[in-house]
Amino acid sequence: MRRLFTSMRADCSTSANRISPFGRNDIIASWWCYDEDHYCRNGIVAGIAAGCVCRAADVAGFYIMTRPEITNVQELRGKRIGVTRLGSSSDFAIREYLQKHKLNPGRDVSIVQIGGMPELAAALNNGSISAAPLSAPSSYIAEQRGNRVIGNLANEGIYFVIAGLTTTRRYLREQRGEAKAFLRAFGRATHFMFQQKDEAKKLLTKYAKIDDPGMLEGSMKYAYDFTEKIPLVKREGVQVVLDQEAAKNPQAKDFTAERFYDNSLVQELINEGFYKSLWGK
Questions:
Q1: Residues 204, 95 share a domain
Q2: Average pLDDT over the chain, rounded to whole?
Q3: Together in a domain, 128 and 182
Q4: Considering 130, 155, 180, which residue would you say is the last residue of a domain?
Q5: What is d(CA 29, CA 31) in angstroms, rounded to the nearest whole number?
Q6: Can you tell me the distance from the alpha carbon of 117 to that of 136, in angstroms, rounded to the nearest whole number?
Q7: C-alpha–C-alpha distance, residues 232 and 89, integer Å
Q8: H-helix segments, the chain
Q9: Residue 122's CATH number
Q10: Domain containing residue 19
Q11: Over the stretch 177-229, which tens digit does the pLDDT of each residue have?
């Protein structure tokens, strides 16, 4: 394992300060920056979900959780569903999920703004709402209280930018080798998480300060459900963000999804057999 970490450290040491995590709001912010030297504001080159040179996840990262007495999505008709805030990713996720299952948000169900994930879980536990989209570790806490998972959005085909890794176009052009090395380290770290669960838990305990065994297990399950092994950015996830912004800002219609991501580095690693060497396919 020491050799593994030494290799990952060598791969990412020179580029770690030029490649940064990003999410939905960073894509929106990047629309207003045309200076390619501006750090973290010029498109998608990588990521967990998206302007981006790779992604870790580009589906809505939630479990749809309900009160114990509700066994399927159709039983939510006439009920109150909580989200963190209107217009948030949790709001988008539940609306897409309901519409996919032929329920009309606002007409068939009421969507109410509650607060953060802990507040959503608490509202579900006390019965003030009947359902909520939750992520770990709040989803684990809610499930331990007897609430039910009726939907895992990793399996629903509801695309959305969650997070990713981004850099400037200039850095990608001038330091392409370093950026590629960083993605190799990212890929090895992802493989380590899947293959070395106990060691990954130790790292989660150390850096996320989670030491409850159940919450650790729930957090690992969430990571396994929503982390992509081969992190190509999906156009659909970026387009969703553009479509949402276009409803508020007509200028967003002037941009294409391709403006915000670059899959070329990940594709090079695929062609070179890097991911096959990790995952065997």
A1: no
A2: 81
A3: no
A4: 155
A5: 5
A6: 9
A7: 21
A8: 2-12, 24-30, 89-100, 117-126, 138-144, 169-174, 176-195, 197-208, 213-226, 235-246, 264-271, 274-279
A9: 3.40.190.10
A10: 2-56+162-279
A11: 998 999 999 999 999 999 999 999 999 999 988 888 888 998 999 899 888 89
The answer to whether residues 173 and 59 touch, using CB atoms and an 8 Å cutoff, is: no
Q: Quick one: 104 and 173 in the same domain?
A: no
Alpha-carbon separation of residue 105 from 92, 95, 117, 216, 274 (angstroms) = 11, 6, 20, 33, 44
Q: Does pLDDT of 253 surpass 80? A: yes
Residues 6 or more apart whose CB falls under 8 angstroms from that of 234 comprise 55, 58, 159
Instruction: Identify whether residues 84 and 192 lie together within a single domain.
Output: no
CB half-sphere exposure, 25, CA atoms < 13 A? 3
179 and 247 share one domain:
yes
Predicted TM-score (pTM) of this structure: 0.75
Contact 65, 250 (CB under 8 A): no
243 shares a domain with 177: yes
